[in-house]
Q: What sequence folds into this?
């Protein structure tokens, strides 16, 4: 089994991924951490030193590697589904779950986050909500290609597993 969690930054992919991996006895991999380990740099360092285009290439390579892993839950980066053939690869090699969380909730979470996120650095609450809405419009066509969509990251894990094991 291979499960990919996709959605905007701050939607809870890593949190749900950890919970689900413990519950289902599957390995959990945060793709951003995987990229950082492979490149010996943080995501913000890669963005600052090499730019977004090079980061997306590293992300594509990491996804290709991770698509070979088995019995795993992978929390992808928020933009990962939107570049190259990443969404097609994920749908072909596993079960994709889109965590569709409201922009206002995302903004609140991101403002409280201790993680440095290059794409939203320095934005106010209002600017952040507007930025999220604008970005979601562009990403929606990719996110909506996921096989499963959830709007509540705290949903019952039995229900989620039943959904993806018995569609």
A:
């Amino acid at each position: 089994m291979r499960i990919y969690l996709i959605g905007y930054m701050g939607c809870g992919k890593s949190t749900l991924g950890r919970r689900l991996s413990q519950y289902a006895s599957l390995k959990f991999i945060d793709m951003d951490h995987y990229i950082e380990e492979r490149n010996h740099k943080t995501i913000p360092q890669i963005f600052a030193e090499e730019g977004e285009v090079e980061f997306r290439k590293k992300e594509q390579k990491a996804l290709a590697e991770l698509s070979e892993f088995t019995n795993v839950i992978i929390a992808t980066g928020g933009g990962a589904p939107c570049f190259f053939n990443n969404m097609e690869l994920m749908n072909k090699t596993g079960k994709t779950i889109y965590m569709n969380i409201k922009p206002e909730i995302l903004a609140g979470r991101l403002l409280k986050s201790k993680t440095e996120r290059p794409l939203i650095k320095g934005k106010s609450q209002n600017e952040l909500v507007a930025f999220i809405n604008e970005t979601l419009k562009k990403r929606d066509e990719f996110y909506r290609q996921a096989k499963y969509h959830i709007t509540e990251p705290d949903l019952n894990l039995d229900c989620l597993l039943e959904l993806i094991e018995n569609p």
